[in-house]
Amino acid sequence: MSAPDFSEFPHPDYEQWLRNASRELASGTWSDWQWKNENGFEVDPYPPAVQAIPAASVRRATNEPCSLRHVISETEPAEANRHAKALLATGADALTFTAPFTSESAFETAVAGIQLEILDVVFTAGPDAVQNLRWILNWCQSHHVDSKSLRGGLAANPSGDETFAELLRLCATHFSLFRIWDVSSVDVHEAGGNAVQELVSALALGSDFLHRADEAGFGVDAAAAMLQFRFGISSTYFEQMAKLRTFRFLWSQVAAAFIPSHDCSYFTSVHAETSARQQAAEDPHNNLLRATTQAMSAIIGGADSIYIRPFDAATGTPSRNAERLASNMYHLLMTEAQMNAADPAAGAIYIEQLCARLADEAWTAFLAVEADGGYEQAKERLQREIAEAGAKKQQAERSGEKVIIGVNKYRQS
User: Fold this and answer.
1) DSSP letters along 387-413, please?
2) More reliable by pLDDT, 283 or 139
3) Each residue of 386-412: b (16+ CB within 10 Å) or e?
4) Distance of CA 119 to the CA centre of its chain
5) How far is CA 277 from the centre of its chain?
């Protein structure tokens, strides 16, 4: 028996289908079933097929699964060390120390007994980022660790040209996988900015870095390897997947403009963290559910690492139990749910449609920033637009138009 080819059933094009659907609607028109998302463009409940983002352009820099990251906020080095070891015991394989170290001995105390050579550890630079990087290099030498194999990074943003050039020189000479420039659009997210604004901010800041590095004598192949990007992840499930995929695609276009010699320069490191803005202090256990969907978006969207904010973080310092639950949330998604496939969202019509729209809107806005002379020249305008978007979002939350479970709907009685 031959396999059916269904040739007897005509295949209508989308426009024909749309006419038939509109004719059969009980009331109204097809446009009544469409809606606008917070980026301002219409979402179609039954989207037509679109040109998918090329799979090669959304590849991650490594083939390793998304890492679980935890944040160490203690300022006292010994306490930071104890907390870091406790979090590593929950299965974390990436850490971020948010408090800058005041001395080399403080740095050594904080990392004592922690195998930096097998972990992804990011440190926050203090006023002297070059000195901080030398401490890390000294640690490698004293522990007989090849600095070129060290992962993680130093979240640094020095302003002086001489300091900038020296930081890049040290990194290029002694490190290969270690990233020393942190580009964050998390502040845009937390201010209420939309996905397009987050993408534009990250692209513009990253482009400015590449221009600045080029002026300091470092080509795109060296400079691109020093970059890491951070994004906040909200509860708009599919859009957040699309946001990360779209960023990788657009960043490959930015890198291409600098004519790299190596394919790896098109790819970059993307870190995600679940939203602080959307955490509720009231009835905080809802945050466990909220963070689960956010973490799924980040993992499916292709994040290299994710920080799942403990459910009680909005009420103060997270409890150890909340941190353990955040770790287990990740482990459940990666092991039981097996969310470790490469780009599982590829080809999904709705997500590809979101990617296409985000890419069009963000690229147009990014080119406008470049025409203004870069991020610093466009900064005031961008901040004003982000503030306007944030105010609209806040009003929608207050009115209940934008539902927040446990806060403006289905509150605990």
Assistant:
1) HHHHHHHHHHHHHTSS--BTTTBS---
2) 139
3) beebbeebeebbeeeebebebbbeeee
4) 19
5) 15
